[in-house]
Amino acid sequence: MTPDSISLLLAPAGAEVLAEACAGFTPGGELRLVEKLRRRYDAAVVTAAVTQASLRHRAVAKFGAEDAARMYFTPDGLEQATRTTVGVHRAARIAATLPGATVVDLGCGIGGDLISAARAGLRVTGVERDPATAAAARANLAALELPGQVLVGDAEAQDCSQYEVVFADPARRADGKRVFDHNAYSPPWSFITDLLAGTACVKVAPGIPHEAVPDGVEAEWVSDAGEVKEAALWSGKLYAGTTRRATLLPSGATVTSAPEVDSAPVGQYIYEPDGAIVRAGLVTAVADAVDGWLLDPRIAYVSASTLIQTPLASAYEVVEELPYKEKALRSWVRAQGIGTLEIKKRGVDFDPAVLRKKLAPKGPESATLIVTRIGRDAVAYSCRRVARP
Q1: Contact 3, 132 (CB under 8 A)
Q2: What DSSP state is assigned to residue 206?
Q3: Residue 174 has pLDDT above 70, yes or no
Q4: What are phi and psi of 14, to 5 degrees?
Q5: pLDDT at 366
Q6: What is the mean pLDDT of the chain?
Q7: 47: which strand partners?
Q8: Do the bridges between strand 149-152 and strand 123-128 make them parallel or antiparallel, or are there none, so unpaired?
Q9: Among residues 349, 354, 342, 345, which one has the least CA distance to residue 383?
Q10: What is the pLDDT of residues 63-76, one digit of tens each?
Q11: Which residues of 156-181 are buried (b: 16+ CB within 10 A; e: fewer)?
């Protein structure tokens, strides 16, 4: 997609082609749709419309059907965009602390965070260096009838002193590949730490090292439906007085402290903490919530004698302890008639998919196999997943 492509689709004639492309779109049917539309419309408009229809179809998972059907995307912009549930959470936190604040979004992409912030009553300005992506962000604010402006420019060249809050989403890709080292972000990490000296929120990868977070800055890890999505760094007036936080969406459950707990042998239940809690290093909060303990002080599994439902973790009832040996596990699978086998692991180096293939599950039953390390030894537990209420 290019700025011209977006302009074509915004024009009345292009909007008509786009509406027809979206109505006729089916995954895998792009070529047939292009051929059909080219019989009546200009090739450039058809290509832009079918590309956009495909992107809107993919965008439903992040933005929901209603918004995705009205928005404009670029392939990279959609890939890097914040999921709506996460953006809404972040915007609500800013608005609760600084209602109606002026917010500049450095590296705004296609405008996902701008949309959430504008809906929260914040006054937004986006800055995006790629003209096509900036055009999409501008079109999205207009399509959703939201106030705000989008500027084309480099984040590092902006005067942020006129805004009450700076939000930044540094690029974490290079040569089409995801970048995990925060020192390889663009803008560079030195620019990010300068922003965090004021009132700012910076979106970072969930794998950011704890020691990289500056003093006086909160690191918040966020999961959505059990999947860790991102981390965010909060500073200045947005700093809430805690250094680490895990937030679980959609429940909104949050954890900020990790009490000391003991380690002990397995009980009747094993709890697997939500990934955001694990990333934040707050696993013992789960043990405290279920009146439990750690199986090993260095491993993120909690055990307890009783079942206590909590949004902080998934629960598994322990059926039996098994030898961590392929022959013994294969015999267990056959004897129990297990055909659906979920394998979970921590602290043990193996590929669950490879082990599952070797165990050759076949039968009507289902089970969960948890493999972990206690001390120096690998242990395995046959479990039943406990359904959440």
Answers
A1: yes
A2: T
A3: no
A4: -65, -40
A5: 96
A6: 94
A7: none
A8: parallel
A9: 342
A10: 999 999 999 999 99
A11: eebebeebbbbbbbbbbeeeeeebee
In sequence order, the 6+-apart residues with CB closer than 8 A to the CB of 87 are 112, 113, 115, 116, 117
Q: What are the tokens at 293? A: 């303990």
Smallest CA-to-CA distance from 293 within 259, 317, 316 is with 259
Q: Report residue 199's pLDDT band, with 50, 70 and 90 as the boundaries.
A: very high
For residues 105 and 113, give the distance between their C-alpha atoms in angstroms, rounded to a whole number: 8
CA-nearest of 284, 168, 172, 274 to 223 is 274
Q: Which amino acid is at 270?
A: I
φ and ψ of 349, to 5 deg: -95, 95
pLDDT in tens, 252-291: 999 999 999 999 999 999 999 999 999 999 999 999 999 9
Q: How many residues does this entry show for the chain?
A: 389
Q: What spatial distance separates the first Cα and last Cα of the chain, rounded to whole Å?
A: 45
Taking CA 31 as the corner, what is the angle to CA 140 and CA 130, rounded to the nearest 5 degrees? 35
Q: Are strands 102-106 and 123-128 parallel, antiparallel or unpaired?
A: parallel
Element (H, E) at 193: helix 189-195
Write the DSSP symbol of residue 318. E
* Residue 136, phi-psi category: left (phi > 0), alpha (psi -120 to 50), beta (remainder): alpha
**pLDDT value for 323:** 93
- Which has more confidence, 186 or 145? 145
